Amino acid sequence: MSAPVLSLAPIVARIEAAALYRSVGGAADMRRAAQSGAMGSPLAFVMPGAEATRPSGMVGGTQHSSVTARFIVVTLAEDIRHDAGLRAVSQLEEVRAGLLSALAGWGPDYADGPVSHLSGQLVTGPLPGGLLGWQDEFSLRFRRRLTTGG
């Protein structure tokens, strides 16, 4: 299959179906939750990352490309101001393990294979409500077909 751009909707649906998080959203949801103070945990926010395209030619006015797209899942664990901190780390570890399992070997219908986990790191910036955060980066490949002209 092909897609013109990375679609996060099936990725969000897959993560929601795993029932790991109280809420799953995107970058705008993360900003709104932080501004309103409506948090709770655990939460996940799925956002697009970098994209690399390798053109494979033109056929009949259609440009064909192979795309490697990255996406990020930010996981926020419970408020560490209100417990010993170790419980928040434990929750973060459990939820991340579930996230990695939910995406392992799976790819959206438009992908050329399964999602790959690339890296993970602690979110070091200030988080609302003293939450503990982890950012996982994933990639997937898909084909892009774009018709040229108007």
UniProtKB/TrEMBL annotation:
It holds the Pfam family Phage_tail_terminator. This is Tail terminator. It comes from Roseovarius azorensis.
